[in-house]
Amino acid sequence: MVFRIPEGFNDALGSPLLCAGITVYAPLKRYYKPNFSCAVIGIGGLGHLAVQYAAKLGMTVTAFTTSKNREQEIKRLGASNLSSSINVESLKTEQGKYDIVINTLYIEDEEVFKSHQRLTAPTGTYIQVGAPPSKVNFKLDHAYIILNQIRVAGSLIGNYDETQEMLEFSAQNNVYPIVETFEFEDFPKAFDRMEKAQAKFRCVVNVGKWAQANGLWK
Q1: DSSP conformational letter for 131
Q2: What is the pLDDT of residues 141-156, one digit of tens each?
Q3: Is the N or the C terminus of the chain less surrounded, counting Cβ atoms within 10 Å?
Q4: What is the pTM of this model?
């Protein structure tokens, strides 16, 4: 696919939006209404973008995380509140409060994972974007979902129109990932940080500069 790059778009930061960005933007835009409450579970590569998009769409955002030492940073992204993503007793106090829940995590603890689903308000939407290992099937809290008429959705990427819209929205609202940048020669360092889950939050490699230097730029 080929997309039109909007005027004012930050090319140096924008590439992860074509994967992580559209993965969270598409379902949030599809199911939101202004003034909805939104829970974002897990503030990593997907979650820190979901917080920004949800806030810019006009939703009130609560970030569920284990990184409360990053409270000010997460609030600057657009979250109004922070809460624990793994404390079952804390999660119980938030049950049924959120019109949209977008979960960027897969938690093996069944009670914690069901508590994530129970954050969804009656007739609300639960969106799962965090994937378990390939041979693991996660379990839905069928009783809570059925009795409360919960819509369950997933997202990997979006279609062409959604992706173009996401690029425009990002440029207009200054929504970009937090990235670590590397020269092409340092690609192995970037890959190593990604493999070890040490990157914050995405690694971007400058291929263009290397291509220009080697006569491959057209």
Answers
A1: P
A2: 999 999 999 999 999 8
A3: C
A4: 0.92
Q: How far apart are CA 115 and CA 138, in angstroms?
A: 13
> Which neighbouring-strand residues pair with 125?
100, 151
Per-residue CA distances from 73 to 69, 77, 108 (Å):
9, 7, 27
Higher pLDDT, 1 or 131: 131
CA-to-CA separations, 14 to 19, 170, 198, in angstroms, rounded: 10, 9, 20
Tell me whether residue 91 is exposed, middle or buried, using C-beta atoms within 10 angstroms of its C-beta: 0 to 12, 13 to 18, 19 or more.
buried
Pair 17, 169: CB distance under 8 Å: no
Length of the chain, in residues: 218
CB 79 within 8 A of CB 61: yes
Mean pLDDT of 127-131: 94
In degrees, to the nearest 5, what angle opens at C-alpha 116 toward C-alphas 112 and 121?
Answer: 145
**How many C-beta atoms lie closer than 10 Å to residue 166's C-beta?**
25
Q: How would DSSP label each residue in 14-52?
A: HGGGGTHHHHHHHHHHHH--TT-EEEEE--STTHHHHHH
